[in-house]
Amino acid sequence: MNANSQALPIARADARGAEARRAATLVIAPPSRMPTLGLAELWSYRGLFVFLVWRDVKVRYTQTVLGAAWALLQPLLTMVVFSVVFGRLARLPSDGVPYPVFALAALVPWAYFSAALSGASNSLVAERNLITKVYFPRLVVPLAPVLAGLVDLGIATLLLGAVMLGYGLVPGLAAIPGIPAMLLLMVLTVAGMGCWLAALNLKYRDFRYVVPFLLQVWMYASPIVYPASMVPERYRALYALNPMAGVIEGMRAVLFGNPVPWSMLAVSAAVGVALFATGVLYFRYTERVFADLV
């Protein structure tokens, strides 16, 4: 056997080994100029997603005296203040519902919305060390506070149910499909806005000052202390461009047995879905430069 015949099997083995190494190599490339939502990749990292959500829940109550009771005290105390100021002194209408219940039905979803949006908007800045050290879908970072806030929302919902029973109000059957639908619309809205603000806050640090002011204005632009019926009819469609207006009015309707404002809800739902889609796409488009901005 000559040298050429001995070298041939060795060369073939080397070629097969190189091909196997190439097949086992994971190439991480930045998203294209036309990004997708990337939900399949997000699902493949669901273990990390769950870990970050659970970490946010634990950190929220670490070294606190009252723990999860804060999820009850915040909307409860705000309800008392609003009932005195807007219910008794300003005498704002409440669509035939006792004003404390009327206000609490809006404060419970709003408390979740404001806390989740604040957490999502600051998430990339807070996780800058993690972003620069390891690869994972960056979309996990702003979405983790959105899902972690659902724990507080669930606790506060128990308070709302207790207050309603105290006033002799029992939700009808419409609440069974209605409440999950309103919850889904609210989660989509805060997730989309959170992605927008997280990406913008990383690039323009001024947004950390803008977000608290935005939430304050947004609260009074939503039907929390007043009913949407106070808005003139000709401005209702414009008013419904605020997706939280549709969420809060829809929530009150299914809880108190009032007619569902379908036209307002349709506009708010369209805006909420648009915010989610555009927010995630913008986030995916700009995530290629996140490591350079932190």
Our Rg estimate from Cα atoms comes to: 25 Å
Beta strand %: under 5%
Largest sheet: none
Number of helices: 14
**Distance N terminus to C terminus?**
63 Å
- Uncertain segments: none
Specify the overall morphology. Answer: globular
| Mean pLDDT across all amino acids | 86
Structure description:
The longest helix is centred in the middle third of the chain and has 29 residues, at 175-203. 72% of the residues lie in helices and 0% in strands. It is built from 14 helices and no strands. Helix 5 (99-121) packs antiparallel against helix 8 (140-166) and helix 9 packs parallel to helix 13 (262-286). It has 294 residues and is mainly alpha-helical.
Please give a quick description of this structure:
By secondary structure, the chain is mostly helical. The protein has helices at 3-24, 39-44, 46-61, 70-89, 99-121, 123-126, 128-131, 140-166, 175-203, 207-220, 236-239, 243-256, 262-286, 290-293.
